[in-house]
Design brief:
By secondary structure, the protein is an alpha/beta fold. It contains 5 helices and 8 strands, in the order βαβαβαβαββαββ. The chain has a single domain, classed as Rossmann fold (3-Layer(aba) Sandwich), CATH 3.40.50.720. It is 36% helix and 19% strand. A 6-stranded parallel sheet has the order 2-1-3-4-5-7, with helices on both faces. Strands 6-8 form a two-stranded antiparallel ribbon.
Length: 187
């Protein structure tokens, strides 16, 4: 399978990239460090053009300027009606909060709420197949300022890969969190 991932150079994206690669898939990533800025319409269009013949697209990279949300809209439009395509959007439980620990996390939650709404509005539309993964606190750069139990990116990525490669069930939305919901700000 041809797998394409935004935000593939660290955290969950890197783990997903490595998992698919280890299984022998044709994997390509798009990250700021490799010259792709999802905030740029021009860069998003380059990614979309490169993903037209991909089988799986993982919308992982987050941007406070709605780049991830715009990427979601763009890839859905590109793949509209194609039941063979599999799209995975990485969302967050921060989307369930009206207010959060700080302004950055509030903006993050707002972005994720918008992505969830886009996907919810398509619940009866099949093509592309969309898996929306709503993650709790995951041990990545974004959670550096939080303490407590966190999800291991390798464990999460293994589960996501299994769900995306599953041919006998259609997973639409799932919320995953650490065993104990005990995280809080370190400050």
């Amino acid at each position: 399978m041809k797998v394409r991932i935004t935000g593939h150079t660290r955290g969950l994206g890197k783990s997903l990239y490595n998992q698919f690669k280890a299984l022998g898939h044709d994997v390509k990533g798009y990250s700021l460090s490799t010259g792709y800025d999802i905030n740029s319409q021009e860069d998003r269009q380059k990614i979309i053009a490169d993903c037209k013949d991909a089988d799986v697209f993982i919308n992982n990279a987050w941007s406070e300027y709605y780049g991830q949300t715009k990427m979601l809209i763009d890839i859905i439009a590109c793949w509209e009606g194609d039941k063979t395509k599999r799209l995975c959007n990485i969302s967050s439980k921060a989307s369930f909060n009206d207010t959060d620990i700080n302004e950055d996390l509030e903006r993050y939650g707002e972005n994720k709420r918008e992505q969830n709404k886009i996907i919810e509005d398509r619940i009866r539309i099949y093509g592309p197949h969309i898996l929306n993964v709503i993650l709790g606190c995951t041990d990545t750069r974004l959670s550096e300022d939080l303490e407590g139990d966190k999800l291991n990116p390798d464990d999460v990525s293994k589960w996501i890969v299994d769900m995306l490669l599953c041919d006998n069930m259609y997973f639409q939305s799932v919320t995953i969190d650490a065993k104990q919901l005990n995280y809080k700000s370190k400050q």
